[in-house]
Design brief:
Strands 1-2 form a two-stranded parallel ribbon. It folds into three domains: 129 residues, no CATH class; 163 residues, no CATH class; 84 residues, no CATH class. The chain contains 17 helices and two strands.
């Protein structure tokens, strides 16, 4: 049975850190001519204990190696070397497992624990040092097969635990269909990269953690939050998401209500968390980009529709707008974004009361100008009020505090 002393460990880690695992996999766990090693209970427990200790030492060694380098290139080479070597060992284990007899319980357990150890080490590297991996590298076939089995197993568990096998939700059905397709694809059909593997692993991990019963049908569901966070830029998913929002808008009675609902979803969408690293399809636009463009186009459409409907019939025929002269405008010393914030806050605190926020902006903005702009679009100001920058919020607060102090001095 394989054992290691402190001296031996120090000797081989200086040259080949994975030597102990390599010897275990390539020598001890490979049956010779169908003969499997005789493993007593004591030897089995001793080796299992050594595997656990070796895993801890390797994690510390990997972290120590990474943090000892000051060059990003050296860190990348080190992390990628560990990752590829561990995948190779995992491949050897898989090959050995294909010929393992069911009757040899001790051997099967030892092989299973070795595979689990290597998988945890791979997951450790992928989780802690993802940014240093070459994610565009083609995925080795055995590693792909192992991941595909994991995907299918997790999908079945999700279906059983949350009754997703016959879901009435199109997004759920689409996701299950696409994950099933990935779990059955072969490298002959398309090129599978390390990025593809890591993305599915992270996605499934997050899907397992969500609360499926929290979906109230009115805001983005927990699954949508995960898919938006993971930048799931599938064209089919984007189509389903925009269709779902459109159906919610059509349930409203008036155009003003539809615009309010649309702005509510736009605000909710902007407030959701994103992961800047992950992306389902690197060759397509980011989910943020596509949906933000869609929201802005829809908002612009409804604002123009409301603007036209509020004009007299004669004005509609002539398509002529009455412009406010510059001399009649009030010069506001704040920027467009800061002015938008104050108007929105005035509406939401009911300081200014109107039928809708849109009416507040439509009524007030034409009579305002800023040092940089004489003509302001009320639609543009309203849209800007929903995704302010921190510096604009601070400037708006400072202006209001200045007004408060002036009132106190009266």
């Amino acid at each position: 049975m394989i054992t290691t002393t402190n001296t031996a460990s120090e000797t081989y880690t200086a040259h080949y850190p994975l030597q102990w695992l390599d010897v275990l996999v390539s020598s001890f766990l490979i049956p010779i001519r169908g003969d499997y090693p005789d493993i007593t209970t004591e030897k089995l427990e001793e080796t299992l204990n050594n595997i656990s200790q070796e895993e801890e030492k390797l994690q510390l060694l990997i972290k120590g190696t990474v943090f000892s380098f000051h060059s990003k290139r050296k860190i990348e080479l080190s992390v990628r070397r560990y990752h590829s070597q561990l995948i190779n060992l995992l491949n050897h284990c898989q090959e050995n497992g294909n010929t393992t007899p069911v009757s040899n319980i001790a051997y099967s357990r030892l092989l299973e624990e070795t595979i689990s150890c290597i998988e945890r080490l791979i997951a450790f590297i992928e989780g802690r040092f993802y940014q240093y991996l070459d994610t565009d590298e083609p995925c080795p076939a055995p590693y792909l097969e192992l991941t595909q089995k994991e995907v299918l197993k997790t999908l079945e568990a999700l279906k059983d635990n949350h009754d997703l096998s016959q879901s009435e939700k199109p997004v759920t059905n689409l996701l299950i269909k696409q994950l099933n397709r990935f779990a059955r694809v072969t490298r002959k059909i398309c090129r599978i990269t390390i990025r593809d593997i890591l993305y599915r692993k992270e996605l499934l991990l997050r899907l397992q953690a969500i609360s499926w019963n929290e979906d109230n049908g009115e805001s983005f569901s927990p699954m949508d939050e995960v898919l938006i966070y993971m930048n799931y830029n599938s064209k089919q998913y984007i189509r389903l998401l925009t269709l779902w929002i459109t159906e919610k808008l059509e349930a409203c009675e008036t155009t003003e209500q539809r615009l309010d609902k649309l702005l509510f979803y736009y605000k909710a969408f902007n407030q959701l968390q994103r992961n800047p690293v992950h992306i389902l399809n690197p060759k397509y636009h980011r989910l943020d980009t596509v949906l933000s463009t869609w929201f802005r186009e829809e908002i612009n459409y409804y604002e123009k529709k409301i603007s036209l409907s509020s004009l007299p019939n004669t004005a509609k025929i002539k398509v002529k707008k009455t412009a406010v002269q510059v001399s009649e405008k009030v010069l506001c010393m704040l920027s467009v974004d800061q002015t938008a914030l104050i108007l929105r806050a005035a509406d939401e605190t009911r300081l200014l009361k109107a039928k809708s926020m849109n009416q507040v902006f439509r009524t007030v903005v034409p009579y305002l100008s800023t040092p940089n702009r004489e003509e302001l679009s009320y639609g543009s100001l309203r849209s800007k009020s929903y995704h302010p920058e921190e510096k604009d919020k601070q400037q708006a607060i400072a202006a209001l505090q200045k007004m408060i102090q002036k009132i106190k001095d009266y």
